[in-house]
Amino acid sequence: MISKIERGESSPTAVVLGKLSAALELSVSELLAPPGTAGATAETPPDRAASGAGVVRRAADIPEWRDPGTGYLRRQVSTPRFPVAVTEVTLPPGATVPYPSGAYAFIAQLVWVLSGRLILTDGPTAHVLTPGDTFELGEPRPREFRNETAEDCRYLVVVTRKATP
């Protein structure tokens, strides 16, 4: 399956990405980042980005990935050169996206709901989040993101790597 994904013959689901991120100790954002994009954008070439110049990235240039199984949409807001990964997620009505505990073993993560209603199951506990609510994830455990409404749910995910011993 990994070989098919690498060759562009198959598009992984969010569940597969979660499992791969856990196994490879990479965030989903790192898995989806195109090779050689550290700081470069369509508007700012690599030499300018490396020089410390500010970077403008137009909405049309922000990479997107859609889960073929659920329609879950990820837009990678930050570039790889930014110290945290900022991702906008649109979870369509009726969608459920589970992630294994291993996907959280090496990262700290904050979820901030922008619109709609998100049910975030954290281990055995389900939290209902509405616009403006945040959830700072604790210790690694299985998590599930659900939208049980008839409207899209939009939220930001902010991820940083934890220091490794």
Task: Tell me the layout of helices and strands.
Layout: H1 2-6, H2 14-24, H3 28-32, H4 46-50, E1 64-66, E2 73-76, E3 85-91, E4 96-99, E5 107-115, E6 118-122, E7 125-129, E8 134-136, E9 143-146, E10 153-161
Antiparallel strand pairs: 1-2, 2-3, 3-10, 4-9, 5-8, 5-10, 6-7, 6-9
Q: Can you put this structure into words, describing what you see?
A:
- This protein has 165 residues and is of the alpha+beta class.
- It has helices spanning 2-6, 14-24, 28-32, 46-50, and strands at residues 64-66, 73-76, 85-91, 96-99, 107-115, 118-122, 125-129, 134-136, 143-146, 153-161.
- The chain has one domain: Jelly Rolls, CATH 2.60.120.10.
- Strand 1 and strand 2 (73-76) form a beta hairpin.
- The relative contact order is 0.18.
Structural features:
165 residues, alpha+beta, Jelly Rolls, 6-stranded antiparallel sheet, 4-stranded antiparallel sheet, 4 helices, 10 strands, globular
Q: Tell me the CATH superfamily.
A: Jelly Rolls
The CATH topology: Jelly Rolls
What is the level 1 CATH name? Mainly Beta
User: What sort of overall outline do the alpha carbons produce when their principal axes are compared?
Assistant: globular
Class from secondary-structure proportions: alpha+beta
Strand order of the largest sheet: 1-2-3-10-5-8
Q: What separation lies between the terminal Cα atoms?
A: 32 Å
Order of helices and strands: HHHHEEEEEEEEEE
Q: Based on DSSP secondary structure assignment, what is the total number of beta strands?
A: 10
The CATH architecture name reads: Sandwich
Largest sheet: 6 strands, antiparallel
